[in-house]
Amino acid sequence: MEYNLQIPVSKEEIKKLHVGDILYISGTVFTARDEAHKIMLETDVKNIPFKPKDMALFHCGPLMKKEGEKWQVVSAGPTTSSRMEIFEDEFISKFGTNLIIGKGGMGKKTLESLKKYHGVYTSYTGGAGALAAERIYEVESVHWLEELGMPEAVWVFKVKNFGPLVVSMDSHGKSIYS
Amino acid sequence: MSDSLVDGIVELIKKAETELPKDVIQALRKAKKIEDGIALTQIDTILQNIDLAKKKKRPMCQDTGIQTFFVNIGINYPKIKELKEIIIKGVKKATGEIPIRPNTVDPFTGKNHQDNTGDHIPYITWNFIDGSDVFITAFPKGGGSENMSKLGMLKPGVGIEGFKDFVVDEVIKTGGQPCPPTVVGVGIGGGADLSLKLGKIALLRPVGSRNKDKNIAEIELELISRINKGGKGPMGLGGKTTVLDVHIEKAHRHPASLPVGIVIQCWANRRAKMVIHCDGSWEVE
Q1: Does A95 fall in a domain?
Q2: Can you give the residue range of the structural domain that contains B111?
Q3: Is residue B235 part of a domain?
Q4: Which pLDDT value is given to residue B1?
Q5: Are B253 and B259 in contact (CB under 8 A)?
Q6: What is the mean pLDDT of chain A?
Q7: B164 with B245, same domain?
Q8: DSSP 8-state symbol, B118
Q9: Number of domains within chain B
Q10: Whose C-alpha in A14, B16, B142, B188 is 20 to 30 A from the C-alpha of B65?
């Protein structure tokens, strides 16, 4: 099945999704890699300067360019998700993340959390950074840029018809990778 | 220092980051013909991405890699003393100009050097050749695929069959993580470091090319077929094309050692070449 979804996605919509489905999403996403996961887990939810609950989580370290005062996305494909396996179950329970975009798949702990908290992990084609950048129409904000540098910072993007995302781990305990 | 040569290095990096060599595109188009379902969506997305990157002159992948160069330098090239500095200057300029992602981080402090240079980086391999021309291959190497590198210090007793099983098992085990369909470089023999170095050098060969030694060429074909039968497919989501090619390079080994270095390159098998002539003129191809 193919779906066009608006972020945030409701619990009911998540439950409809199964491994192998293809999604195109519109709404807000934030990027987070290893260092951003660590910082966010160490920070109180009330002190997080954006609303992760209303956004999809994108495992991505984008290539950005500043033109005047405005940031532009040059290339923004997914990074290898398995590096975030050590953080993700706690991250999902703390921030209510229910849609993850990455590549290469994640492990058992994340799969269990997706089942418990009703979420999906989706795979975007690794390396397709130029194409992904075309579907990001606005850079809303950036956080921890000074401390973490461009690839590791948290970037908040508005996206339209972002995909194809393959549902590769669903909320019913199924994973394409196992 | 020649500004024109620095610009040449920027042009070389830009070419590598924004345009894939024809042999890789051909192999991906061939894969498209035999795939269906999810695997086909992945190959289609990759091909669309390649077209867009070339058209818009933007890096095809946000991971623009660790800047890596293989340099064959003529011993009579007049600027032999300056070339390293020219390459470093080119990398710094390319970072802001193309742009490419600042990808050099101090392993102890975690501080990003911001300009793609740092201790030992850019990583340059020098070979001295006769004549006065310089031939440079830019080979930006992404982190996701590099993380899947593997060194096996096998027992010589396992033989060539053991070597083949090791490569097949290790590549299949990486699943979707190195962004398949990949190109696999395998170095056999030498020592630990040399086998990995040969693995990387093997990746410089065009996709579809075979080792000159017929026996090794046959082993390459066998490994391609066995890995692809594993069914991991594009991005590890299932399919027929896990690898586009396997290249093997060998060195003689110590009687007690059978080192095997596996280096994996994602589908974005970025390679670009440049020639610098003794009069300072240059071409990027």
Answers
A1: yes
A2: 3-15+60-142+271-284
A3: yes
A4: 54
A5: yes
A6: 97
A7: yes
A8: B
A9: 2
A10: B188
Residue A49, chain B, CB below 8 Å: the answer is: no
Is residue A59 annotated as a catalytic residue, yes or no?
A: no
Span A58-76, average pLDDT: 96
CATH number (domain holding residue A82): 3.20.130.10
pLDDT (0 to 100) of residue A178: 83
Chain A residue numbers with beta carbons less than 8 Å from the beta carbon of B62 are 60-63, 74-77, 129, 132, 151
Amino acid letter at B227? I
Termini Cα distance of chain A: 21
The answer to whether position A134 is within a domain reads yes
How would you write A22-58 as a 3-class SS string?
Answer: EEEEEEEEEECCHHHHHHHHHCCHHHCCCCHHHCEEE
| Any domain includes A178 | no
- C-alpha closest to that of A158 among A7, A44, A23, A36: A7
Q: How many domains is chain A built from?
A: 1
Q: What is the pLDDT of residue B3?
A: 82
Does the ipTM surpass 0.90? yes
Cβ contact (<8 Å) for A126 and B112? no
- Segment 99-128 of chain A within 8 Å of chain B by CB: 103-105, 123, 125-128
Kindly state the DSSP code that residue B112 receives in the 8-state scheme.
Answer: B
Range of A140's domain? 2-43+51-169
List the one residue out of A163, A150, A144, A164 whose CA is nearest residue A72: A150
Residue B21 lies in a domain: no
- Domain shared by B136 and B275, yes or no: yes
Q: Is B208 helix (H, G, I), strand (E, B) or coil?
A: coil
Q: Closest chain A residue to B42 measured between Cα atoms?
A: A125
Question: What pTM value is reported for the model?
Answer: 0.95
What does the pLDDT read at residue B285?
Answer: 86
Average pLDDT, chain B: 97
Looking at the domain assignment, is residue B47 inside a domain? no
B209-245 pLDDT tens trace? 999 999 999 999 999 999 999 999 999 999 999 999 9
